[in-house]
Structure formats: C-alpha cells, structure tokens
Amino acid sequence: MENNSAQHLTGADFVGGAVTAIARLIRENDLKPGDRLPAEAKLSKDLQVSRTVIREALRSLAALRLVELGAGKRPTVAELDDASFSMTIEHGVVTDQIDIQQIYDARRTIEARTAALAALRRTEGEVRAILSHAKAMAENFDNSDEVMEHDLAFHLAIAKASKNPVFALIIGAFQGVTRQTWPIGWKSRANDDERRAMNALHLDLAQAIAAGDPQSAADLMNRHFDQSIKALLNAGLI
Amino acid sequence: MENNSAQHLTGADFVGGAVTAIARLIRENDLKPGDRLPAEAKLSKDLQVSRTVIREALRSLAALRLVELGAGKRPTVAELDDASFSMTIEHGVVTDQIDIQQIYDARRTIEARTAALAALRRTEGEVRAILSHAKAMAENFDNSDEVMEHDLAFHLAIAKASKNPVFALIIGAFQGVTRQTWPIGWKSRANDDERRAMNALHLDLAQAIAAGDPQSAADLMNRHFDQSIKALLNAGLI
DNA sequence: CCTATTAAACCTGTACTACAGGTTTTAAAA
DNA sequence: TTTTAAAACCTGTAGTACAGGTTTAATAGG
User: Which of A63, A95, A102 sits opposite B64 (nearest CB)?
Assistant: First the structure.
C-alpha cells in the first residue's frame, strides 16, 4: 500500500512550498518513473492549500519534467528528459545571454569525451545506429534537412553510447538551438568538396568508435568541431 | 511603445499552447531580462483562454526560469539561471536514473576545460576570488562545511572565469547533488594528510590559473577529479 | 472460477467569480 | 519640480461548476 502522505504547508509562498513538498514526496517515498502521485484533491487536503495552488505546483513540476500530467490521470513520476534544459539553453540564446560559439565550445568539450567513451562502451546495436546515420548523411547529400537530422541523431547516438545519461541530456538539450544554426554552417562551406569532407569525417569517426579506438574517436570529434566552428566563423555568425 | 500582442490559441493543449505563445512573445519582441510581459488579463484576452490557463502557463515558464513572477508585478523576462537544470539533475539522481560517478565524470570533462579557459581568460578580480576560496579551504580545515562551500564556490568561480555561461550553468546545476555526496568523499579520505593534499591541489590549480597556464590548470583539475573519484570509490558510494 | 462488459467512481482541464494585498501610475498638493 | 496621496492595476489564493478522460468496481456470461 502506498504511503504518499505529506505534511501541511506553512509560510508565505504557497505554490513554491507545494512544489518542494511534492518533490520531497517523490524522494522520501522512493518513487520511480511511472509511479503515481496522489490526486490533486488529496494533495490539496494534505498540504492544506487550495486545488489552485496544487495545480500550479504540479504544472511547475511538469514543466521541469519531474512529473507527467494527463487528463483524467493522476500525476506520475517522469523519466529523465532534456526538454527542460533545452528551454533554458534556448532562452539563453534568444535573450543574448549565450552565443552560438559558446554552445559549440561546450559541445566540443563534451563530445570529444562522449566519442572516447562510446569507443570503449558501445554495443553492437549502437555501432550500427551510429554508422547508419553517418552513411545516411552521405547518401542524402542533396537534401540538407535530411543531412542535418542524421547529423543530430549521429551525435546523440554517440552520447547515448557513452552510457552517461548526463552527457546525453546535455547534447540533447543543444539540439534545439543547433537546428537553428546548422543550415548556416552547411551553406557557408565553400563547396561540395568541403561538405563531402565533413561527411567523410563522420564516417571515420563512426569507424573509430566501431573499432574501439577512443583516442582516434576523440581526435576526430575535435577535428570535426574545429571545422564546424570555422565554417560558422566564415559565415559571420560568430 | 510596446507591441506585446499575441495571436489567439487553437487546438487542444491550452496550457502548452499558452507556454509556447508566451515564449514566442519573448523571442519575437526581442525581450531581454528585466523586460515586462503583458499582464495575465491581457494575455488571457489576446490568447482567448481563461486566466486559469495563463496562470498555469506562466507558472510553467517561471519553473523553467524563463520568466519571473511576483505579487502585484507583471511577469518579467528572467536571467539565465541553473535552478531548472539543477532540478533535472537532482531528479535523475533521486530516481536512480543518474549515479554519482556519472556526475563526477561529467564534471571532470567539463572542468578540465573550464580550468584551461579560465587560465586564458580570467580577470584579476576572478583570480583573487579563486585564490581566496582555495585559501579559505585550507584555513577552515577543521570545519568541513566551510571547506565544502568554498570548494563549491571555487569550482563555480573557475567556471565563470571561463567566460562561457553554458559551463557555469552546468557546473552550478551540479552543486545541489554535490552537496549531498561531498561529505562522504571528505570522510573517506584516509587521514588528514590526504585532506591537506586535496587542499594543496586546489591552491596549485588556482596558481596555474593565475599564471595563465592552461595546460597545467587542466592537468591539475583532472588529477583533482581522479583523487575525488578514488575517494568516493573507497567509500563504496560508487 | 475466470473473463468480458458495463456502470460507477474518480480525476483532470478549463472557465468564472471574489477578494486580499502588493505595485505602478496618475493626479494633486506643496 | 518634487513630494505625497489616491486611484488603477495586478497577482495570489480560494472556491464552484462542469465537461470529458481514466480507473476501479460490479455485474453478467461462460
């Protein structure tokens, strides 16, 4: 039987208090993704605040992706998700608090590591996925949207193969802003040869990971980012 | 004169739609931190949804730290803040989706880079702050809480001196969970000599940054994390 | 006894009203 | 012009109502 009880709130910030109380409920009852929280009415009674306050608190937690909401369903504990960090990053870029070069520098730092870790830890299935995205980039050479999506999926697949969800979270969160600048880098590459070189680099990287060579994988990833940043500089974007 | 108008919503997910619409309002009107958004009543009228929906949407955006709310005040655009990502990380740890070693590996990867960048870009003021935290760690040797807080501040100061807000954001977000495990690493160090060695390492690192030596700074940061992870392994934590 | 169907109970999403108390703007006074 | 006071504006919380989705319980059929 569940013991999801919570103590009633005191103090000023009702919604904030409810957010904290519900987060504590998850922690102290060892709730895991998929587990159900008490209904709004019960939380309202337990915490001694109106349903209005509970709803706003649950909405806050849903925005942060700690819980999931659905019509008619009780709130459930959510799986780890990059959507919330993605919003933060996008906000930073939109409001000029982060620029694109800073995103790329962070990506290079992290992805040199995910490439090395992926080379050490990848499963056969992950190797196939990574290789298939690299090949799809070359095969869809004329459709830049396709190339971009496979590029993004390629990098995320490597992050996942690193077996560190923190890296996957961060790289996933960068995808939103990357989608907005990627075409600029693609167009700014002087000619098709440069674009083909980029695709070839992806293939080499995939093969280094497949071969289990962390040093080469990291080196190739760094080289890839050097080229990408140079292309964005040429475009005057950064 | 402001032109904060928004088009009315259509479709099913009212709150989600309002979140998107308000985020778009920020983007399309080039609003910056501190700028005011329309009042709830106006948003309600513009988007053709009840104030209830608008309030839940604003709470969502406040949870993500895109906006700031205050009694009597209109919502304002918020500055970049690590609180939202911090909640994500903590949720991942609490629900066993992230473990401590993964946090430390991510930190090592990123902080080797922030140390190198700080060595290249730090201002005099930043050097003073970094050095003062390293010294305070040694001086408060007997008060582990003090040591911990200066340790955290030391690492964050380096991240800020790297001049890449993305790194500062990520390192800041790790502080919450780090506070929960740091004492374990401290206690698990076999004797005071090991603890003193850790403090000495911080001082060396601070001096490498002060000297503008990125290679040494990165090396020392990596060595520091090797020791920390070893200490946590000894404690059986990971 | 087990399974399938149906009804009831439960629950969330949205809208609306009301008002206390905080904030900003406006208007009046000095 | 500056200060002060009033008015207008705005958010925070509580509560009611109801449509429509979901889960659970009860019922029927095998």
Answer: A63
